[in-house]
């Protein structure tokens, strides 16, 4: 009989597998500009901007961390607003205002929605004083940036469970933001970079979620 811990591990991994099954990693475009999405396009756009990885401790031969994150890009935000507006029956003016706010936020920061499962429950807390994992925004140009905020979503509701379906009762959910500019004025994700990602590092090991950028 499987232990409850093993059941939770397998359940978390299964949700991620089902969500990403059949979706080979695609390169993403960082270009801005208008999009012509309809509400039913959201699931495809979500998969494009979502990455998931597992960290296995080779000494224990056990999965110690499963992380799934969605980068809330310009492209993703456009699809999200279209879907949200359709679901909540927003007026044309309400949709326009929501889209403007979301795209303005994108110009100010890099944001990720993250759900993770750690082998021990207390390792789930990225906002703890002494967290088990340190998260950094990285790129292939050598930039490494600490988050400006880590918001714990203590009780994911209908929005999180619907629009980020890899959220489960066994995973902790967060919104993590990073500045777009470093103190010296350089971009935290270089315009010359071929990929960017999130790095999780701690005593148990390290793992990266990577988004590869398509040439413009």
Walk me through the structure.
This protein is an alpha+beta fold. The protein has a domain at 4-28 and 53-71 and 110-212. Helices cover 28% and strands 30% of the residues. The chain has helices at 4-20, 42-48, 74-87, 92-108, 158-163; strands spanning 50-57, 62-71, 109-118, 134-139, 144-145, 149-153, 172-179, 195-202, 205-212. The strands form 2 sheets. The protein has a 5-stranded antiparallel β-sheet. Strands 5-4-8-9 form a 4-stranded antiparallel β-sheet, with no helix packed on it. Strand 1 and strand 2 (62-71) form a beta hairpin. Helix 3 runs antiparallel to helix 4 (92-108).
Short characterization:
The protein has 216 residues and is of the alpha+beta class. The protein has five helices and nine strands, in the order ααββααββββαβββ.
- Average pLDDT taken over every residue: 88
Q: What would you call the quaternary organization?
A: single chain
Number of contiguous helices: 5
Shape: globular
Tell me how many strands there are: 9
Q: Residue ranges: pLDDT <50 for 5 or more in a row?
A: 1-18
Q: How much strand?
A: 25-35%
Structural class estimated from helices and strands = alpha+beta
Strand order of the largest sheet: 1-2-3-7-6
């Amino acid at each position: 009989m499987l232990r409850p811990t093993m059941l939770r591990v397998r359940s978390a991994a299964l949700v991620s597998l089902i969500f990403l099954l059949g979706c080979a990693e695609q390169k993403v475009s960082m270009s801005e500009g208008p999009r012509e999405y309809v509400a039913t396009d959201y699931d495809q756009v979500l998969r494009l901007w979502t990455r998931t990885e597992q960290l296995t401790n080779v000494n224990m031969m056990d999965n110690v961390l499963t992380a799934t994150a969605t980068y809330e890009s310009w492209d993703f935000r456009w699809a999200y607003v279209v879907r949200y507006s359709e679901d909540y029956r927003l007026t044309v003016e309400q949709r326009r205002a929501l889209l403007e706010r979301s795209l303005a936020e994108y110009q100010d920061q890099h944001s990720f929605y993250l759900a993770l499962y750690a082998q021990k429950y207390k390792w789930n807390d990225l906002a703890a004083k002494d967290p088990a994992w340190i998260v950094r925004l990285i790129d292939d140009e050598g930039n490494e940036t600490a988050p400006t905020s880590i918001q714990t979503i203590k009780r994911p509701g209908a929005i999180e469970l619907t629009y980020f379906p890899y959220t489960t009762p066994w995973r902790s959910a967060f919104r993590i933001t990073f500045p777009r500019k470093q103190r010296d004025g350089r971009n935290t994700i270089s315009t010359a970079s071929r990929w960017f990602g999130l790095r999780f590092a701690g005593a148990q090991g390290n793992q990266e979620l990577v988004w590869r950028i398509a040439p413009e």
